[in-house]
Amino acid sequence: MNWTSRATGTTNWLYRVRTLDGRLVAVGENGVLLTSTNGTNWVAGNSGVTKLAERHGAVGNTCYVVGQPGRGAASTNFSTWTSAGSITTKSLEGAATQTDNCGGRV
Predict the structure, then answer these.
(1) Is the CATH code 3.40.50.1970 the one for domain 14-86?
(2) What is the pLDDT of residues 12-24, one digit of tens each?
(3) pLDDT per residue over 49-64, tens digit each?
(4) Which of 25, 36, 37, 54 has the fewest beta carbons closer than 10 A?
(5) Domain ranges of the chain
(6) Measured over all CA atoms, what is the biggest interatomic distance in the chain, rounded to whole angstroms?
(7) What residues are paired with 75 via a beta bridge?
């Protein structure tokens, strides 16, 4: 396997990358959230997480990003992210995944 370096447009550290609904979703330092359909071109989104976006997952047709300080955001289309509020002042370090079908495509 050969790896090729790609510019993401951020200087923040990226902590997690996974596929959700056929897209790559990366989260990291300072709440950075990036999406890509091809691994070459990355689009920045606003995760609503102010420190570290640590995990992301999907339930039904909604994708979630969670992190510090207990904040999260939700999206059904990867373009618009809405604050999912805060349930704690502690770091959220996990997001359950029921499905990888954000956006409603099968």
Answers:
(1) no
(2) 988 888 887 788 8
(3) 666 566 666 667 777 7
(4) 37
(5) 14-86
(6) 42
(7) 63
